[in-house]
Amino acid sequence: MAQLKVTLVRSAAHRLPKQRKIVEALGLKKVNSFNVLPDNEATRGALFQVAHLIKVEEVK
């Protein structure tokens, strides 16, 4: 199963509360922090909600 490396490139401060909760649920705290997550529909849905704040790379 593929993995996704998700990096926070813009701050979640001053964003909608829902977006801040999604960023926290993805395991991202500060700018340039990253987390490796499984590539599934639930993860993809969360990434789509905060796509303007993150960078996603596929990890093999």
From TrEMBL:
<feature type="domain" description="Large ribosomal subunit protein uL30-like ferredoxin-like fold">
    <location>
        <begin position="4"/>
        <end position="54"/>
    </location>
</feature>
<dbReference type="GO" id="GO:0022625">
    <property type="term" value="C:cytosolic large ribosomal subunit"/>
</dbReference>
<comment type="subunit">
    <text>Part of the 50S ribosomal subunit.</text>
</comment>
<dbReference type="GO" id="GO:0003735">
    <property type="term" value="F:structural constituent of ribosome"/>
</dbReference>
<comment type="similarity">
    <text>Belongs to the universal ribosomal protein uL30 family.</text>
</comment>
<dbReference type="InterPro" id="IPR005996">
    <property type="entry name" value="Ribosomal_uL30_bac-type"/>
</dbReference>
<keyword id="KW-0687">Ribonucleoprotein</keyword>
<keyword id="KW-0689">Ribosomal protein</keyword>
<dbReference type="InterPro" id="IPR016082">
    <property type="entry name" value="Ribosomal_uL30_ferredoxin-like"/>
</dbReference>
<dbReference type="InterPro" id="IPR036919">
    <property type="entry name" value="Ribo_uL30_ferredoxin-like_sf"/>
</dbReference>
<dbReference type="Pfam" id="PF00327">
    <property type="entry name" value="Ribosomal_L30"/>
</dbReference>
<dbReference type="GO" id="GO:0006412">
    <property type="term" value="P:translation"/>
</dbReference>
<protein>
    <recommendedName>
        <fullName>Large ribosomal subunit protein uL30</fullName>
    </recommendedName>
</protein>
